Amino acid sequence: MLDSLITLLIQAGEEVAENTDGGNTQSNPWNSLFMIVALIAIFYFLMIRPQQKKQKEIRKFRESIKAGDRIITAGGIHGKVTAVKDDTFTINIANDVNIRIDKGSVYPTGTPGQEVSPKENVQ
User: Fold this and answer.
1) Which of 4, 23, 54, 114 has the fewest CB atoms lying closer than 10 Å?
2) What value, to the nearest 5°, has the Cα angle with vertex 71 and ends 67 and 76?
3) H or E element, residue 88
4) Closest CA to 26 of 35, 17, 34
5) Consecutive 10-residue runs of the chain (123 residues): their mean pLDDT?
6) CA–CA dist 85, 88 (Å, integer)
7) Does the predicted model carry a pTM greater than 0.85?
8) How far apart are CA 76 and CA 85, in angstroms?
9) How far apart are CA 90 and CA 82, in angstroms?
10) Cα–Cα distance between 27 and 55 in angstroms, integer?
């Protein structure tokens, strides 16, 4: 589909170039309008729509996190969710060490509730 759309854009551009006669441009305004609309459509389907889809998945992930799930924050902190509020999570990162983090700092790294194994101490 993308190849055929690019081909159409190239053909429209060639028609505009062929209609140029010694500095007098006799291009069809519909060709120019078609090219603009085609470029907007390309940007929408290749850049904007996938980004919106990804943001929606991240939002669903954050909403699905509940107390007891193990998470990893954007800063790399591993912990277990102990409380969920409107805009924040309280996570337990060590014995009797709880921190409150913003929901926006948690990104999907797997499935909610995924066990995060602590690294073994090598001595």
Assistant:
1) 23
2) 145
3) strand 88-94
4) 17
5) 69 61 64 90 92 92 91 91 93 93 84 46 37
6) 5
7) no
8) 21
9) 6
10) 41
